[in-house]
Write a structure and sequence with these properties.
four-stranded mixed β-sheet; six-stranded antiparallel β-barrel; 7 helices; globular; alpha+beta; about 30% helix; about 250 residues
Length: about 250
């Protein structure tokens, strides 16, 4: 997970905890889901594939055959742990990774945008997402606890971590077509964004999301965030911003 510019430190050099939490929400493909056992009420932890909704809230695809889904039917309160996965050689201490523990509730969603975003982030899930025992769930975040290093432990409210989407309805409605257009007609620009703006190496980046804060690119099981210089709320501003970013990348 990487971003083209660090918004975790502001212009004065102070740590930006909400930005760090948003990086984890937007840049995670898997997390640890904790539910309450339907019988004993004891905590039960399991691994879950996730994707961010348009505002960044976690979306999950769960089967009724799974223990955690049976637990949700009895009590939909959950905790979700997201941590920054890195491509190190295995020698790094995993306790140094930034992570955020989210608490809230999980409920089934029939909305198209969360479903489409999840399947772009996890294309292999298209094979079984239509099975009768599977449903998409969206997490309503109530609180977050961020641990991002020494002196960087912060409690956060939902509005600190989620992207404001008021006024971005047109962008949300055109996201699917905008992502397809970038992948089909502007693959070269995606490589520029990843390699020049985000400092990644190699190729094969595919766009899987576009929100007011930036683009999300996927390669393998890793996500790269390309942050916009300013919030984007409409298709017209998106086109201009993407062109400006491509011009900037080519000029470097």
């Amino acid at each position: 997970m990487s971003a083209n510019q660090s918004r975790q430190d502001n212009d004065e050099g102070a740590f930006d905890a909400p930005a760090a939490a948003r990086d984890l929400l937007r840049g995670s493909l898997v997390g640890t889901l904790a539910t309450l056992d339907a019988g004993t009420k004891a905590p039960y932890a399991s691994m879950a594939a996730i994707a961010p909704d348009f505002d960044g809230a976690p979306v999950l695809l769960l089967s009724t055959l799974a223990v955690h889904t049976a637990n949700l039917a009895a009590d939909n309160r959950v905790s979700l742990l997201l941590d920054a996965r890195t491509d190190d050689d295995g020698s790094a201490d995993p306790m140094t990774r930034p992570r955020v523990s989210l608490t809230g509730t999980l409920a089934v969603t029939g909305e198209e945008i969360p479903r489409d975003r999840y399947l772009r982030h996890h294309p292999d899930a298209k094979f079984y997402s239509g099975f009768k025992d599977f449903s998409f769930y969206r997490m309503e975040i109530e609180a977050g606890h961020l641990v991002a290093g020494f002196g960087r432990i912060v409690d956060l409210a939902p509005q600190d971590m989620l992207t404001p989407i008021q006024g971005a309805g047109e962008l949300a409605a055109c996201e699917e077509s905008a992502v397809a257009h970038m992948n089909e007609d502007h693959a070269d620009a995606l490589q520029l964004y990843a390699c020049v703006l985000a400092g990644e190496e190699g190729d094969g980046f595919v766009c899987v999301g576009c929100d007011p804060d930036g683009l999300t690119l996927r390669r393998g099981m890793a996500l790269t965030r390309i942050l916009f210089p300013r919030a984007v709320e409409s298709p017209n501003v998106l086109r201009m911003t993407l062109k400006q970013m491509a011009d900037e990348a080519r000029s470097r």
